[in-house]
Amino acid sequence: MKIGIIGGGIGGLTLAWYLQKAGVPYDLFEADARPGGNLHSLATPEGYLLEVGPNSLQLSPELQELLADLGLTDQIQDAAAVSQNRYVLRGGRYQVLPSSPPTLLTNGFFSLKAKWQLLKEFRKPAAPIDTNETVAHFFRRRFGPEIVDYAVNPFMAGIYAGDPEQLLIHKTFPQLPVLEQQFGSVLRGFAKSSKGAGRRRIITLQNGIQTLTDTLAAKLTNYQPGTAVTAVSRATDGTYQLELKSPQGLEAAPGYSHLALALPTYAAAPLLEPLFPQAAAALAAVYYPPMCAVYSAYDRASVAHPLNGFGALNPKVEGTYAAGSIWTSSIYPNRVPAGQVLFTTFVGGAQYEDTGRQPDDAQKAAVHAELSKFYGITGAPRWQFRYSWPRSIPQFDGRIVAAHAAADALTTDNIVAVANWRAGVGVPDCIRYARKQAEALAAH
Question: Its pathway (predicted)?
Answer without folding.
Answer: Porphyrin-containing compound metabolism; protoheme biosynthesis
